[in-house]
Amino acid sequence: MTNNIYSAYAQKIPLNKYDLPVVNTVTLYKELVAADSNQAFVDVTAYIPNIRKDVRYATANNFTHQVLYPYAAVYLRLPAAKALKAVQTELNKKGLGLLIFDGYRPYSVTEKMWEIVPDDRYAADPHAGSGHNRGAAVDLTIIDLHTGKPLPMPTGYDDFTEKAHHDYAEPDSTVAANRALLRSIMEQHGFAPLYTEWWHYFLKDHKRYPLMNISFKDIK
């Protein structure tokens, strides 16, 4: 059903001012889930044992310097959550785990980000929407389970410099290896990297999921 989700619901998903189909009611979301269980959102912190989160957009500690989420929540579509659970299981065998910065992002938040920083190097253009709006993209890093601290990476989260790019020639071999480990294990489980952000990964088939503008509260 997933392959035909747009054709089946083309007349039901309303177009926004940019002529993008965006699911904006709980009723329509429930219809999609009833037709295809993979459309369901999963609370990642409840679904994946021992996963940790640091949702910056629920605080002012982010690139916009504004609180954009009412509370710290991480939701993903079921297939993305399943894949991430497999990543966590594999990392746990190495004494490592995942720290999540962001998952599903309501489309209205993407619009707000664009108002604050209208630069597609740093924020998703609402004319296209984001993998986060589809619940099929995740921002994350690796932590050491013994110390609880993130492994050293080339930059911090939401650092918009060339050092955050995957092809940046990181001089520290340990840091370069950490970045490579994250990319390797995410790709093994069906995720693709964003070229300019070492922390951002999305399902390769993310466009099979419609853009969403449902609040965290309504999903819960």
Mean pLDDT across all residues, rounded? 94
Structural class: alpha/beta
Integer count of domains: 1
CATH class: Alpha Beta
Q: Which parts are unreliable, with pLDDT below 50 for 5 consecutive residues or more?
A: none
CATH topology: Muramoyl-pentapeptide Carboxypeptidase, domain 2
Helices, by number, come to 7
CATH architecture: 2-Layer Sandwich
Strand order of the largest sheet: 3-5-6-8-7
Query: What is the total tally of β strands?
Result: 9
Strand content: 15-25%
Report a brief summary of the structure.
The chain is an alpha/beta fold. Helix content is 29%, strand content 17%. It is globular, with a radius of gyration of 17 Å.
Q: Mind sketching the topology for me?
A:
Layout: H1 5-9, E1 22-23, H2 26-35, E2 41-43, H3 44-47, E3 52-53, E4 75-77, H4 78-92, E5 96-102, H5 107-116, E6 137-144, H6 173-188, E7 191-194, E8 197-203, E9 211-212, H7 216-219
Explain this structure.
This protein has helices spanning 5-9, 26-35, 44-47, 78-92, 107-116, 173-188, 216-219, and strands at 22-23, 41-43, 52-53, 75-77, 96-102, 137-144, 191-194, 197-203, 211-212. With 220 residues, it is an alpha/beta fold. It has one domain (42-208): 2-Layer Sandwich (Muramoyl-pentapeptide Carboxypeptidase, domain 2), CATH 3.30.1380. The strands form three sheets. The protein has a five-stranded mixed β-sheet with strand order 3-5-6-8-7, with helices on one face. It is globular. The two termini are 24 Å apart. The model has no long low-confidence stretch (mean pLDDT 94).
